[in-house]
Design a protein that fits this description.
Order of helices and strands: HEEEHEEHHHHHHEEEEHHHH
Radius of gyration: 22 Å
CATH topology of the largest domain: Aminoglycoside 3'-phosphotransferase, Chain: A, domain 2
Helix content: 40-55%
Shape: globular
Number of helices: 12
Number of domains: 2
Number of strands: 9
CATH superfamily of the largest domain: Aminoglycoside phosphotransferase (APH), C-terminal lobe
Amino acid sequence: MAWPFSVAELTAGLRRYLAEPALHVRTLIEQPLAQARLPGRAAQGVRGLRVEYSLNADTLSLDCVVKEPLGVVRSALTNPGVREAGLYRSLAAQLPMATPALIAADSAGSWLVLEAVEAAEGSGQWDLNTFQQALVLLARLHERFWDLADDLAAYPWLARPLSRDFEVHVYSAAQALGQVVRDEWPPQIAHSPQILGTIGQMIFQAEQIAQPLRDLPATLLHGDFWAGNIVRDDDGDMVVLDWQLAAIGPGVLDLVVMIKTTEWETNELPAPAEKLAGRYRREVARLLGRRWSDAEWSALWDHALLWRFLQEMLTWTVSVPRAVFVARAQQFEDIWLRPALDAAGRRLAPFVPLPPLPD
């Protein structure tokens, strides 16, 4: 099996990581991900690897994970592999949680080699208590970098969805809506003039959607923080994986992703979304003294939901194979489309009257 790196590149990375300049790589053995001890979602472009190496007179081994980020990178956006490797190299020591250890990475972001995470038995089982612990951890991440956008600007590879990258995402959303109209797909959107008009208003008013989020203190965002990217080690600590979407922005975006992705991937939440968000809000209040009224929070949640719909889910509808969309069409409508349309009706109507939505 071909690997995306040379033995020399891997050897150099291992020598740095293990601080052993006399190390020599002997054998590379592909491993199933279960053996590589990386539980969670099966991911394309992720393989398990056992490296056998010699050190002095000993032959040793190390289990690793090889990641080759797949998918189309939108023009002008940082490669996800560069972003993840940059975070492990520059920010991991400052995080309030453990991350995988980076062994080697391509400068262009086409591959990374990480030490495999030793996950405790049953770490993939999430109940309400575990979910709440993760919410507390998320709040601690945001507290650590709260209002430090100027400091985080030193890391140009971090995404900036509401500033530097904003126009790229809005343009992609507009292109996606145009494709929906041309292809008359998906029918849930294309066959409804009211829904097309409302989504068109979302794009037209993207600045109004983004501004309340920009007004919040910016922090470091994980970008895809949910159970599928978190495992527990043998000490019971949460190890947070997959920092490919690390960004600068308001913490509410991470919270929307956590709750909505859980719904999307599991079809259920361990408690109502309002209760889960309340746990995060209480922790932010405890750590930072920052509080929002229920009305203020409701507005922020709506704006974050609208932004994520434009940033990710609208383009998803035209980028996935039609069979995949059909299989998830009801989920898309229940979890994303209808809530986004309702939020648009509440938050955009004061700017431009929106057409009535169909029942």
